[in-house]
Amino acid sequence: MPGRERERKLTGRPDQEREPAGKPTGGPVPERKPPHTPTPDRDRGRDRADMSHTDRDATDIRDQDRKPTNTPGQDQHPTNTPHRGPRSASTSTPAGTSTPTPSPDRNLTATPGRDRDPTDAPAPDRNPADPGADGGQRSPAHTRVRRFLRERWRVLVRLGAWSVLEAGQTFVVGYALARALDAGFLAGNARTGLLWLGAAGLAVCAGAYGTGRVYRVVAALVEPARDRLVTAVVARGVREADAGALSGLTQQVEIARDTLAGVVMVTRSFLFTAAGALIGLFSLAPLLLAVVLPPLLAGVALFAATLRPLAHRQEAFLTADEALAEELGALVPALRDVTAAGAEDRVADTVDARTDAELRAARALARWSVARVAALAVGGELPAVLLLVTAPWLLGHGVTPGALLGALAYVTQSLLPALNSLVHGLGTSGARLTVVLRRLTRTPRHREAPIPPSPDARDDARDDARDHERKPARRPHAPPALSLTSVTFSYGPASTPVLNGLDLTLPEGAHLAVVGPSGIGKSTLTGLVAGLLTPQHGTIRVYGRPVPAPRATVLIPQEAYVTTGTLAENLALFRDDPVPEAELLTAADAVGLTPLLETLGGPGAPVAPAELSAGERQLIALTRAYLSPAPLALLDEATCHLDPEAEARAERAFATRPGGTLVVVAHRISSARRAERILVMDGARTACGTHGELLRGSDLYQDLVGGWTARPAPLPG
Ligand SMILES: Nc1ncnc2c1ncn2[C@@H]1O[C@H](COP(=O)(O)OP(=O)(O)OP(=O)(O)O)[C@@H](O)[C@H]1O
After folding, report:
1. What does the pLDDT look like over 438-471, one tens digit per residue?
2. How much is the pTM?
3. Which of 62, 256, 506, 703 is the most exposed place for a label (fewest CB within 10 A)?
4. Which of 393, 426, 441 is the last residue of a domain?
5. Distance of CA 528 to CAs 70, 482, 511, 517, 559, Å?
6. Residue ranges making up the domain that contains 703
7. Whose CA is nearest to atom 24 of ligand 1?
8. ipTM confidence score
């Protein structure tokens, strides 16, 4: 049925509409897209689609027993058959969120609380790293570590023994050097000196052998620890049935193993080296110990004091780093969705926020790293300086030149490198190990730091709030603006129904977008609601009255018709009473007609329909509908010739019309996003929810959002 007749029938003012020369003035009728047969891929996708939550939770729209493959008209146009990417990609949102269950909107549905799957209930939080956690018997981490070490006392003894051999080298080298000088070269006995140097060389060889054995023993300690962690993590992954978490956690286990080995090595090395050096210093001259020990202890204490804050900064940095990586990981496969949703700026803001967060964390970490350098200077380098500064005094108090040289060797060749390894190894690996172990043993999953809303999001929220404020509150006991109950409609007795058992309820003031592939039945739905078509089964009520409900509904079709006459006559076409000019101007301003109105010369200016662009005709038709007394507006691609800004303005005008209810057949993602709820028509799988819910729960909606990116922008007017 031509759009002009639709408008006429709906508003009850057929006689006032005049056409020039008996032909439509709406310009060329846009080409209807040819139907096509669904691709096997698409069908497979539908079969795969897990619509259970939208079917179960978010809809009261039942469009049952459809056989979409049999009806050409229900088929999808090629331009509306976007490539179906991997599910993980299509479910990714710009914000990189997971997939929650769409929640039903009780305002939009008539049969709330449909059977909910009990498995939807969140699983109780369990300790992920403790295989025995199911029983709730979880011992503290330090107890488990002690038990682990007790079970491996033999390994610890071996580790100690080989470490003593390794540390013996430290002791012997310094001591032998001192003796070589004092008893050998300075005493004119080169042979003795060489013998002591030879002893030092042997000690180095023995120490190297000891170091090699130490590595093996450390592996015997670290590998079982890793195995335990792997067992715990796999058990957790199986419990949570989360392969992603599993792979992420096993990766963390590997990090834990490597860092644990590093921590054991550097800590053990420092302890044994320091013991060997201090014993050596004491053996050479107790006075040397008095010079070296205080700064060494001060340096170690300073380093120890930085450990906890460093671990926190390290954790903050890792968290920020992972959040950024996660953001980018979710973003890259979802670029198509981002573009489709027009969310480029918002996503850029989010990534900026994550990058800034990482930068701040890195700076904080760097600041604390300076303290580590200070600890190294005090504990490792200051003793050497003190030895040199106090050398005359030491030599005057019985310290021999050989002992002084040996002390310098202890400090520069043993203590400083060992402390250096400790500070850098423990400062980095230790902090990292703390973080990883904490996550593995306590936190189920890394949680992202909240990101402040982007300026765009704030703007949207402000717009929404403003719209909400401008919209009168819904009357509590008012009948629904629209209710469809088990509506079935087909164009012929033998044809497959376009709608089959559809239920839908909209409260007064609601804003619903209808989306779906070409030919799925969106215009048919608006035609039924407008009373242009009559369902074979079911009932349709508009504000409690059975359809057709004259003067309750206004349908604005894609083809806008403008009559000859003045602009004011065009705009007042659906009104019985004379429309005051002020009201007319207000409506024009709300819908976005004012510039055209001024160009034409005001409300009294004559209109030449053929000279108007398609977009200008749509603006006139929209303003006419806005001024009509009908509270339920049906926009069936009525803004397709407007640019996105003009479309947004017109839709907002209808959405905030006092007492008005809006149903929009959306042809742009921006249009769908403005609606409170979106009805996705997909044959048997009709679903209803918010944009976010449907992105997560409706494969077809994901496809449509993707397809919108490929759709060329509408031609200007
Ligand atoms: N007058 C008619 N007679 C027979 N079949 C029709 C008629 N009008 C529409 N159909 C068929 O009904 C089905 C639904 O059409 P409808 O126009 O409602 O779909 P649509 O979702 O609005 O499509 P589009 O997005 O392309 O406008 C299609 O298969 C179409 O071919």
Report:
1. 766 654 443 333 333 334 444 444 444 444 444 5
2. 0.42
3. 62
4. 441
5. 22, 11, 18, 18, 18
6. 3-21+53-74+102-110+480-710
7. 518
8. 0.98
